[in-house]
Amino acid sequence: MTSTDEHRPTTGRGGVRAEHHALALDLGSSSVRAVLGSYRQGTVSTEEVYRLHHQAVDDHGTLTWDLERIMDGVRRSIVEATRRLGRLPDSIGIDTWGVDYGLLDARGALLRAPRAYRDRRMSRWAADLDRAVTPQTAWRETGILPQQINTVYQLYADLREDPDLVERVDRFLPLPDLVAHLLGAPAEVGRAIASTTGLASPGAHHWSSQVMGAAGVPERWMPPLVDDATVAGTTSEGVTIVRPGGHDTACAVHALGLADDEVRLFISSGSWSLIGATVPRPVLDEAALRAGLTNEVRTDGGIRLLRNLTGFWLLQECQRSWNEPDTGALVKAAGECASLGVVIDPDDELFAAPGDMPDKIADWCRLRYKVEPEGPAQTVRLILESLACAHAAYAQGLQDVVGDLLDRTAPIHLVGGGARNSLLPAMTAAACHRRVVVGTPEASALGNILAQLEAVGVLDPAARGEVLRRSVRPVEVGACQSMTDPASFDAMRERLLNATAR
Hints:
GO terms for molecular function: ATP binding; rhamnulokinase activity. By secondary structure, this protein is an alpha/beta fold. 38% of the residues lie in helices and 20% in strands. It contains 19 helices and 19 strands. Helix 13 (327-336) packs across helix 15 (375-402) and helix 16 (424-432) crosses helix 19 (486-500). The protein is globular and about 60 Å long. The model is unreliable at 1-17 (pLDDT under 50).
């Protein structure tokens, strides 16, 4: 076991400092969040110091991100962290969602507002790209499941609709590296965020010439690929900028504290649920492709073999329809009401668009089961049971692909917003027939902070797990309650299979 003194941050001159303050800029698709992490005597404490709402905006039919508002939030976050500390933070790191990006000209100016992944332009050109590079070839070349939201589809659509971009663009940068660059870091791309683009080799060791050639993306646009958990540069005020993994899920997985070679199931639960397995290297066989899995790089250089699943988006949309912001009260009521005994498919296209979610869920159930939930409480319970059953289906798919590398008795690690929910972990444990270890809701920010500590030499990566055990108290959940009886979830999964096979 590493001692507490060995965890303390050291200066470059060999002296010892009492503490290190790392600012995680956790940028989501609806908010700029700043979480200040303070490292003292082998533990990390966190505090949210700033939050700013933002959203994609419709710019004459094109869905874009308001980067000026995002950068204003980033700068205000640094100011607020400085005010709280009485001095500048020691380091900062940026994580965002995947696949979106900015395009810079030769002067380093942004050519236009970054496009949002929900913009519809890709649907007009996706079939053309699939003919230019087949999904099987794209999978072999990148390890990433071909999907229209992927960066490669976005860039292909950009170039088809504006061919002059070939000459006007000097640099392509994914969002976290774009923000870091605007703060003062050189134009480089971390391997974790690069792996989400569909443009990099499996493991993101280099850009894929074959895929970029088929998509018409000039190689001269692409900055060097570099390791994560490394120093990226400094701000104009002299604050160290760290590349923490770039992608919010990479940071969340970093906060599990697993050793490099540990193969474990995880769920990062939020608006999306990302269920995956930590594996040491890309899995590129046909079984993984058929299972809809994708190989994304972890902050430590390993692989997140995962699948996206619609998550609390369903509940959030219901709350919007009901005008009911109190999630805790809804979950409590859901735990006290009877189960409908059926589940929906969260990934059905019916649920992808916003609006009228309670009615959509009721219609889906009436059509397939001839029953429907009665009121908000039963609707919420149905959503949670449906997510748990989907977790079970995808966990089984991962187990089948990974095989004996994955211990069938090992627990699933659940982090993110779902860790705040009192029912979802127990339901997931019952549906998956596995224990669930519930970690921190702040996993992305905490993983970002840990990567900063490692990058600047404050924390030995081998001690990450011990620091997490000191800093976070995970809770292990089993399927021990009658309301989360595994047999009832098995029956609901069977009814769903029968209903959707018709």
